[in-house]
Amino acid sequence: MANPKSKIQNPKLVVLISGSGSNLQAILDACASGELHAHVVAVISNTADAYGLERARRANVPTVVCVKSKEQDRRAYDAELADMVASYQPDWVVLAGWMRILSSAFLNRFPNRVVNLHPALPGTFPGTHAIECAFQAYERGEIKHTGVMVHLVPDEGVDCGPVLAQEIVPIQSDDTAETLEARVHIVEHRLLVETIRRLVDSA
Questions:
Q1: Residue 107 pLDDT
Q2: Domains of the chain (ranges plus CATH)?
């Protein structure tokens, strides 16, 4: 499913964020160290105060804030966002803590090139607060582990696209919601970088 454009020596990534950008930082660090043979050409946030924007600036990566106004139609916003992303000619668009569901007005512009990270296993806990929901399910005795997945985003389904990678994260008897979240984030950072590396290296 790799885009033929990604055969270039240094594939371009545009990363979309909404918050602190810890997964963005993992990507930036991997690019800087040579672990990931790719280049983040822009970081776009739908929130003006996302700390990930500061992470991008420190790495000398261009940043853009694109906030949806209340009166703006969702598809119109997504089309505007797609134009913005397309202007950087990315080989891959990475959703790293992007907290909006993208419509076809965006996704149809980048078929098989939008990659999302979700802190749960396929088919479990879609949407927001996935780690918290998993911990609550554990406390009810319903599950013994949660996990992380990286998947393509072909349509408007929530966290249900074709899976590129997944990894189980056991829930330990002495875990709190906070300790579980910390361990999930560690797996997220590694799995996302590993998956992007496979995508760009397989071209």
A1: 97
A2: 11-201 (3.40.50.170)
Q: Which residues are catalytic?
A: 118
Average pLDDT of span 80-108: 96
- Is residue 155 helix, strand or coil? coil
Look at strands 63-65 and 39-45 and give their pairing.
parallel
Query: What integer is the mean pLDDT of 68-81?
Result: 94
177 to 38, 64, 125, 130, 148: CA distances (angstroms): 34, 33, 15, 11, 16
Question: Letter for the amino acid at 106?
Answer: F
Contacts with 98 (C-beta within 8 Å, 6 or more apart), sequence order: 16, 17, 18, 46, 116
Q: What are phi and psi of 32, to 5 degrees?
A: -65, -35
Q: Is 117 helix (H, G, I), strand (E, B) or coil?
A: strand
H or E element in which residue 169 lies:
strand 163-170
| Bridge partners, 81 (sequence order) | none
pLDDT at 203: 67
The pLDDT value given to residue 3 = 46
Q: How far apart are CA 120 and CA 118, in angstroms?
A: 6
Q: What is the pLDDT of residues 8-38, one digit of tens each?
A: 578 999 999 999 999 999 999 999 999 999 9
**Residue 191, by phi and psi: left (phi above 0), alpha (psi -120 to 50) or beta?**
alpha
195 contact partners, CB below 8 Å, separation of at least 6: 115, 150, 164, 165
